[in-house]
Amino acid sequence: MKSIAIMGASGHCKVVADIARLNGYDEIVFVDKNPECDKFGEYHVADEDTDLDYYLDNNYDFIVGIGDGKIRRKVQENLEALGADIVSLVHPKAVVTQDTTIGQGTVVMAGAVINPGTTIGKGCIINTSASVDHDNVVGDYVHISVGAHTAGTVKVGDNCWCGIGSIISNNIDVCEDVFLCAGTVVVKNIEKPGKYAGVPARFVPF
Question: Is 44 an active-site residue?
Answer without folding.
Answer: no
